[in-house]
Amino acid sequence: MKRITIFALIVLLVAACTESGPVIGISSGLSEGRLSLRDEYSNAISRAGGIPVIIPVTTDSILIDEYVKLLDGLILSGGEDIQPAYYGEEVLNETVQSIAIRDTSDILLLDAALRAQLPLMAICRGEQLVNVYFGGSLFQDLPSQTESDILHSQTMSRSSAQHIIYLEKGSRLHELLGVDSIGVNSFHHQAVKSLAEGMKVSARAADGTIEGFEGKGTFCVQFHPEAFVSAGDDTFLPIFTDFVKQASR
Ligand code: MN
After folding, report:
1. How far is the CA of 108 from the centre of ligand 1 (A)?
2. C-alpha span between 191 and 141 (Å, rounded)
């Protein structure tokens, strides 16, 4: 009897040790022929108990479908501007910098992830991409198109707060952070102009800039919570633990 109990205990221990977290894909960027991604994204996911994998930029839709089959969740990461043609505008000025194949790759990835109903978090460029995908538009160059005293392109360290955002009651973001306002970092020269139909704003800066929205199976933020979590600041960790939990189902 005793031997059986010890055996059962060993089986339980082995099961506990081999239990793995959900696999979370993170879209990557391209920089001079190299795939690029800040390690803050993968650090934040692993700190939250997920297994981060980096998805290469590719325009091969069959390959993207295969990647999505391997994933339990997807993060669309930050990066270059989306080509304004995707929301029916000409390029405004020289500040708008795009990489055509990354746009194609990210749109294929978003499309495949939505079809597979993967939990989806979109950060910065990712947030803007989701808005454009569902029919919204962007400010191409926020400083020249809007009047604001707020600096949205900070020079301070990536894990320090540059401006405050005000959270919408009833949003998932508000629920997760449990506060009405909070300081965030800011590294964007574009932002949502018209929000896609069916999406709900979750946060705004004092100048009205949309800093987060949710809907249609997506959770989107304009700021970079992963930079805080990666630096060991747990303020925004609930965003990632909740995401990993959703991806575990
Ligand atoms: Mn901002």
Report:
1. 27
2. 8
